[in-house]
Amino acid sequence: MLHLLRDKVIRTMGSLCKNICFNRLKSTLLSENKTIDKEIQLLLYLKYKEILQKKMPLPSFEDVGFRVFSQNDEDGILLYIFSLIGTVNKKVVEVCAADGIQCNSANLIINHGWTGLLFDGDEEAVSKGKSYYSKCKDTAIFPPQLVHAWIDTENINTLISSHGFQGEIDLLGVDMDGVDYWIWKAIDCIKPRVMVVEYQDIWGAEKSVTVPYKRDFNRFDIHEDYFGASLPAFIKLGREKGYRLVGCNRYGFNAFFVRSGIGEDVLPEVTAKECLKHPKVLQGILTRLPKVIDFDWLEV
């Protein structure tokens, strides 16, 4: 079945070269295969590069997203970003990756040969991830490093550098549901080309706020919606660290930043408002924000 699907992909790509939009390729694949496997991802990767080389109109993040291991459509977006800007060493660090199986790093590690360093504070989850990657045929020879640690601003740089990651890497992900703003602010031992961070979408596009830093912060001790920082806060921090916002995931809570000097012509800066238009976001502003708006939020 796979070889038949691959042949159909190749035929479809031939049609694409005759001015048929790449969306036909993606929709054809998704209609027949609920997940996009390695061979198909490679074809998509090459197609994006061809579109760029021929200076054809590039698709939007809404067009390229899909899920293999990520929670939502982040796998497709990351594949698209790196098809446009390339890679330097295929290294990824992810802070709070849970078991490392459903996260933003997994697809890159398993299907594209990336080297990963994944942290989480749940020892059982980390153990599960280690077992998975040690048995996975694509990673058993050289699995990613999964590290059990409670991350704070004091230890994050030591933890990263002590596991062999320093200087330029391709991707950093932070998804702590907590003091994410302060952790990204503290990281200086690595220089990621791309950054993906979960933001608190209930604040909308105007307020630049974060939860105050607390080493043992746990949102469930206070309220499930009391965590993180608003997108404007991350945009400000990104600019301080030399990054621009280039887009978000479908539901508007994961933001993608690219370092200044890399791919401005193909991945231009976008506004917070452009990333906060999904009905889920609007519903959260109306129903979730009032429950935590009077909690301790710090303007930054």
Features:
300 residues; alpha/beta; Rossmann fold; 2 domains; seven-stranded mixed β-sheet; 39% helix; 16% strand; disordered N terminus
Q: How are the elements arranged and paired?
A:
Blueprint: H1 2-16, H2 22-32, H3 38-53, H4 61-64, H5 74-85, E1 91-95, H6 106-112, E2 115-120, H7 123-135, E3 145-148, H8 156-162, E4 167-174, H9 180-186, E5 190-198, E6 209-210, H10 231-241, E7 243-248, E8 254-259, H11 279-287, H12 289-292, E9 298-299
Parallel strand pairs: 1-2, 1-4, 2-3, 4-5
Antiparallel strand pairs: 5-8, 6-9, 7-8
Helix pairs in contact: 1-2, 1-3, 3-5
State the distance separating the first and last CA atoms.
Answer: 54 Å
- Figure out the total of helices: 12
Lateral strand order in the biggest sheet: 3-2-1-4-5-8-7
Instruction: Determine the CATH superfamily of the largest domain.
Output: Vaccinia Virus protein VP39
Work out the strand percent: 15-25%
Cα-atom radius of gyration:
19 Å
Mind summarizing the main beta sheet? 7 strands, mixed
CATH class of the largest domain: Alpha Beta
What CATH architecture of the largest domain do you see? 3-Layer(aba) Sandwich
Give structural notes.
- It contains twelve helices and nine strands.
- With 300 residues, the protein is an alpha/beta fold.
- It folds into two domains: 1-67, no CATH class; 68-299, Rossmann fold, CATH 3.40.50.
- The strands form two sheets. A seven-stranded mixed β-sheet has the order 3-2-1-4-5-8-7, sandwiched between helices.
- Helix 1 (2-16) packs antiparallel against helix 2, helix 1 (2-16) runs parallel beside helix 3 and helix 3 (38-53) packs across helix 5 (74-85).
- It is globular and about 50 Å long.
